Amino acid sequence: MIVANILTILLASAGLIFMAVSFFGIVKFPDFFTRLHAQGVGDTLGALLIILAMMIAAGLHLISIKVFLLFLFIMLTNPLGTNMIMIAAIHNRDYQGYNEEEESVKTNKSESNKKESAKK
Prior knowledge:
By secondary structure, this protein is an all-alpha fold. It has one domain. Helix content is 88%, strand content 0%. The chain has four helices and no strands. It has helices at 2-28, 32-58, 62-91, 98-119. Helix 1 (2-28) packs antiparallel against helix 2 (32-58) and helix 2 packs antiparallel against helix 3 (62-91). The model has no long low-confidence stretch (mean pLDDT 82).
């Protein structure tokens, strides 16, 4: 019983540490994608460690099976949600001035095409 309590405290503490580190990653990282990566990895691992600690604290009962189902749900949805947010950011044309860069490239190409046609 004492070993289970110690293991529960260690796992829950490790989960809280991972969640705190992911929070500081969100605050400190400069780019959207690095912030998203810090949140995705840190939050998923932190939540899973806390849920594992809850399973050990509950023992072998029906509640631990329910907590395991919660574990599976978070394991499936958190990385998927992070990935969907990333894909939406990639498809957004206004992300970090992408539109401005694309327009300047189009302008430079059209100007070079006009110069080439004028030379002919």
